[in-house]
Amino acid sequence: MTLIFKRSGIAQDFITGGQDTVGVRVPNHPVALGLLEAFVRAGGKGIAAPSANRFGNVSPTTAQAVADEMGDYLAEGDQILDGGACDVGVESTIIDCTGDVPKILRPGAITEEMITKSTALSV
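Above: the chain sequence. Below: its structure as tokens.
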């Protein structure tokens, strides 16, 4: 799931493309989580990364699919982190949290029903 928030001073223009909002997501994968944890231990505050696909194309679910789509755009020394095939082959659910009530902008693997049930359990 990707949550959209109003950006703070940490999210500079090069991260948000000059927009006043930022999308935040934490992956549920041990390799990606390990990378984030190592970055935090090194003093980092987060990693800004786009999806591994070109605008308008479906997100790839394997490292090979990333290489096939993005290979011509990678510089020498760029690397693709391969943690195996994705468990879920659909886009992430995007939720806009900038208004009074969160709003699903794009449905994905996490459904509105799952969110409603989770919210009801936490109240």
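Residues 30-41 form the longest helix (12 residues).
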